[in-house]
Amino acid sequence: MAPLNFLLSHLPSPQGGILLLCDEQQRLRALDWQGYEARMALLMRRQYPRDAVQMHSSTAVPAPVANALAAYFDGELQALDGLELALGGTDFQRQVWTALRAIPAGSTRSYASLAAQIGRPAAVRALGMANGANPISIVLPCHRVIGSDASLTGYAGGLARKQWLLAHEARHSKKPA
After folding, report:
1. CATH of region 91-173
2. What is 3-80's CATH topology?
3. Where's the active site on this chain (predicted)?
4. How is 13-31 classified by DSSP, letter by letter?
5. pLDDT tens digit string along 106-144?
């Protein structure tokens, strides 16, 4: 088992502390909320089952990640689009996560419509599981996926945060260019 060394840092946000996990190339591997360290570790073990994931605390947040998140929370919703990511997971999970990143800020998709979009309309439940295993919250915007009846459904960071993120994006996506 080859060890994967990731740097774990913390960043404040309007919705509480953010946990960032980056590799040595400063690619974002995971983003979660403070208090969810155990969930992050579990996701990393599941996504890299053949490797020993080692998380080392760091006080330094890679500048590209810190700058993009600050800009996003300041209302520049496209600031996250250029962040370099590195993903583990299965081929299907990566397909779902890529589809998440294509949902425009300020809009939402239902699980069913997202499953149809990736050409797997019968895979709604599997898509929901992949969405729930998303390691890079906000950047891979799983918060933009809602129920078919437009209800807010599960979000690992809590429904209040999901609601805040959607309202933040709705407010800022309507700004004139």
Report:
1. 1.10.10.10
2. Double Stranded RNA Binding Domain (3.30.160)
3. 142 (nucleophile)
4. -TTS-EEEEE-TT--EEEE
5. 999 999 999 999 999 999 999 999 999 999 999 999 999
Determine if the pTM surpasses 0.85. yes
* Active-site residue, 22 included: no
Q: Which of 142, 146, 156, 166 is catalytic?
A: 142
pLDDT at 175: 58
Rounded to whole angstroms, the Cα distance separating 91 from 60 reads: 31
Residues of the chain with CATH 3.30.160: 3-80
Whether 177 shows a pLDDT value over 80: the answer reads no
User: Based on the number of CB atoms within 10 Å of its own CB, is 64 exposed (0-12), middle (13-18) or buried (19 or more)?
Assistant: middle
Residue ranges of the chain assigned to CATH 1.10.10.10 = 91-173
